[in-house]
Design brief:
about 450 residues; alpha/beta; 11-stranded mixed β-sheet; 7-stranded mixed β-sheet; 16 helices; 18 strands; elongated
């Protein structure tokens, strides 16, 4: 049994498009609710009525609420996608999602997906299938939830040249870092609060280790620079090592600590290359991204002609994500009604990726050292030897002593000017092997220097 909105006399004469939904979790349920409640408006906007012909789930016995009628549920996802004109995929994961979407496109269905992991890992196979079979692939909800971002990057800015994208694209990590900043608690306490409020999963690994943000960086880089950037191309660090001491240091410097996805063009003696990376960053408090609080997302784009652009909003949640999905459904459905196709993959540039070691960044490093004459000179000499110039130094004595109970200890926080990543790695290796530096407590990049 299918589900179609009753419609008015004005829409009952319109053609019908068959819609299959893969997954009926939080997002899938909201998608079905919106299709049911807004069916009349959607039909007018599209020029065709949407008929939900089935919802593929793993468990037929689970009650999914009034917006997911039991008669629509099926465990045979493969048969379902072969009957559809449009397939909405919100089941997540790599398989069976990939196989089902490829099968759907082979049978002539257009696809709307929120599956960032699949797009980042193997978007190429989906793009190629869409081209081969003359169907559409839309994925607005895969990057920043409700925030319109994919369409502006690949359509509105198609006539411009994007230089750089900085993004807070994971609400869980932003909530945690914001809580640490506002309250002074440590990472574990902030994570527990995020889980209690539903901002973090019971297993938050993908979020706090930066994997979710890295998948989104891969998609953004591919769109912005017309080159295929895979998940394996993205350098990734999470926030599990961020401490209350790091947050306090950021405050002293007039900065805020954020987990950023950064994709940019880099020009050096090797020509133009691109970088895609995710790691915690110290941002000036004056930067627009510094004020993004709680679980919100924001993306800052720098383009040649358009200048600086800011996109802000809810990056997750059932209703916000469903909003982005329905926008894609309308676009894909309109194309089918008119007999055309939407934007295709653009990868003509095929720019190479620059290794992290070849990038230049400003750094903040935190060290625990022996408190004795000459220590600062020794540290400065090591940095200078690798071409690293110091910007500021903050030092404070610690109450504890070294393991022998004889030598007092101090904490040193050093900000540097821009230097090669490889040079900083080499300097840190020296610090790790010297008796003067007892521990390297943190290494953070600085933006806005």
């Amino acid at each position: 049994m299918s589900q179609t909105s009753p419609g008015s006399p004005l829409t009952q004469g319109l053609p019908t498009l068959r819609v299959a939904v893969l997954g009926a979790g939080t997002v899938g349920t909201e998608v079905l609710r919106l299709i049911s409640q807004q069916g009349e408006d959607l039909a007018h906007r599209i020029g065709a009525r949407l008929e939900v012909i089935g919802v593929a789930v793993r468990d037929l016995t689970r009650d999914r609420g009034e917006h997911v009628p039991a008669e629509l549920l099926t465990e045979d996802a493969s048969a379902l996608v072969q009957q559809a004109d449009l397939v909405i995929e919100v089941m997540g994961g790599i398989e069976p999602a990939r196989g089902l979407l490829l099968d759907a496109m082979a049978h002539g269905a257009s696809v709307v997906t929120a599956n960032k992991a699949l797009l980042a890992q193997d978007g190429a196979s989906l793009y190629e299938a869409a081209d081969t079979h003359g169907v559409d692939l839309y994925f607005e909800a895969a990057v920043a939830g409700a925030i319109p971002l994919v369409r502006p990057v690949r359509e509105s800015l198609a006539g411009d040249r994007i230089q750089r994208v900085l993004g807070i694209v994971n609400g869980t990590t932003n909530y945690i870092l914001d809580a640490m900043t506002r309250t002074g608690v440590g990472f574990d306490e902030a994570l527990a609060a995020a889980q209690e409020l539903g901002y973090a999963e019971a297993d938050p690994t993908a979020d706090v280790q930066g994997h979710d943000a890295a998948a989104k960086a891969s998609i953004l880089a591919s769109l912005a620079f017309h080159s295929r950037v895979r998940l394996s191309d993205v350098y990734c660090e999470g926030i599990t090592e961020v401490t209350a001491q790091d947050i306090a240091a950021a405050g002293r410097m007039g900065r805020t600590l954020k987990l950023l996805s950064i994709v940019e063009r880099v020009r050096d003696e090797s020509g133009e290359r691109i970088s895609a990376r995710v790691y915690p960053v110290l941002l000036p408090d004056s930067h627009p991204l510094s004020s993004v609080s709680e679980a919100y997302n924001a993306v800052f784009i720098e383009a040649d002609a358009a200048g600086s652009l800011m996109f802000y909003g809810q990056g997750a949640g059932g209703a916000p994500t469903a909003s982005a999905i329905l926008g894609d459904v309308v676009s894909a459905a309109r194309q089918r009604v008119r007999g055309g196709v939407g934007p295709r993959e653009s990868r003509y540039a095929e720019l190479d990726l620059i290794p992290l070691d070849d990038l230049r960044n400003a750094f903040y490093i935190s060290l625990t050292v022996q408190d004795r004459p000459g220590v600062l000179a020794e540290i400065a000499g090591t940095l200078s030897g690798y071409g690293i110039s110091i910007s500021t130094i903050h030092q404070e004595l610690l109450d504890q002593q070294d393991d022998g109970g004889e030598q007092a200890l101090a904490h040193i926080g050093i900000s540097t000017h821009h230097a090669l990543e490889s040079a900083m790695t080499a300097a840190l290796d020296v610090f790790s092997s010297t008796s003067t530096v007892l521990s390297i407590d943190s290494v953070l990049r600085i933006e806005g220097e």
